[in-house]
């Protein structure tokens, strides 16, 4: 009996470190997976199921490979959802604007989704800003006004590689085509996401600058986001033409004029009692546009 107890004690002593090692290795693998899942969840809004699949397929400790797999899965899911939702109506979303630092090039893009719930999310708003910021450098500079709609914008942008701007708050710093961005947004929102129309302005004449204004969301130094938006191309001799162009764009959003003559005769809301004509102080409005979301 004594000998049997001694043998049991010796066997237990051998097993303990072995079992502990197994548990430690198992815990280490689980910890690595959870860490990668947590990192990927912080980087984007993909579903937890897709993230887990990507981490599993990549293997423990291979975060970069997990990112690559996840990106492919998001695109694949986006393609499937896009096919299912192609006949749905997408009228929610934002009009996104971006203007160059010198105020000589600007773009306005209507980005649509299906529901107001999705349009109100921070990720969709950032996506909408990113679209305008990424497309701005690719607007041709040969014409003062360039209009594109959902049937022909790919003639310019289809094969362009669009990098996220350096001031973007988006955590995904990948590059891709416009279609890649749309498929990703479709995958992450589960809704039809589309671009309805694009307008580009170029200030080709001397002493001309572009002003932008949108009502509905927080603005940044170079971008605006709203449900109503305008761009104004203004020429003026003073060094305040950029400021005045911005004021004119704001007046256009607020007052919804139907013609340039009407616009010039309107009393300024921001600079009362001056009219818009007086606000220009000898300058002129070369072109302007006003959009309301979902009205094209």
Automatic annotation (TrEMBL):
Keyword Mitochondrion on entry? yes
State where it is primarily located.
mitochondrion
- GO molecular function annotation: translation elongation factor activity
**A single GO CC term, please?**
mitochondrion
Q: Which UniProt keywords apply?
A: Elongation factor, Mitochondrion, Protein biosynthesis
Translation elongation factor EFTs/EF1B dimerisation domain residues: 106-261
Family from the record: Belongs to the EF-Ts family.
Question: What is the recorded name of this protein?
Answer: Elongation factor Ts, mitochondrial
**Organism source for this protein?**
Schizosaccharomyces osmophilus
């Amino acid at each position: 009996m004594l000998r049997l107890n001694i043998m049991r004690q010796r066997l237990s002593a051998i097993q303990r470190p072995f079992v502990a090692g197994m548990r430690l290795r198992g815990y280490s693998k689980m910890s690595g997976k959870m860490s990668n899942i947590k990192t990927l969840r912080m980087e984007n809004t993909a579903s937890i199921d897709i993230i887990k699949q990507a981490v599993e397929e990549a293997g423990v400790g291979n975060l970069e490979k997990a990112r690559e797999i996840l990106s492919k899965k998001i695109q694949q899911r986006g393609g499937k959802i896009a096919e299912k939702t192609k006949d749905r109506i997408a009228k929610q979303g934002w009009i996104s604007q971006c203007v160059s630092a010198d105020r000589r090039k600007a773009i306005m893009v209507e980005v649509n989704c299906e529901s107001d719930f999705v349009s109100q999310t921070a990720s969709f708003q950032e996506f909408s800003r990113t679209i305008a910021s990424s497309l701005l450098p690719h607007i041709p500079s040969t014409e003062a006004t360039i209009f594109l709609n959902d049937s022909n914008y790919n003639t310019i942008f289809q094969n362009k590689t669009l990098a996220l701007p350096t001031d973007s708050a988006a955590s995904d710093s990948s590059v891709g085509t416009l279609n890649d961005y749309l498929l990703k947004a479709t995958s992450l929102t589960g809704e039809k996401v589309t671009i309805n129309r694009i307008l580009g302005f170029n200030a080709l004449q001397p002493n001309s600058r572009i002003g932008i204004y949108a009502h509905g969301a927080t603005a940044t130094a170079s971008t605006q986001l709203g449900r109503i938006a305008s761009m104004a191309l203004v020429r003026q001799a003073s060094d305040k033409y950029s400021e005045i162009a911005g004021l004119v764009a704001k007046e256009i959003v607020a007052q919804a004029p139907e013609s340039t003559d009407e616009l010039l005769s309107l009393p300024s809301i921001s600079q009362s009692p001056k009219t818009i004509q007086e606000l220009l102080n000898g300058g002129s409005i070369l072109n302007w546009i006003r959009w309301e979301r979902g009205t094209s």
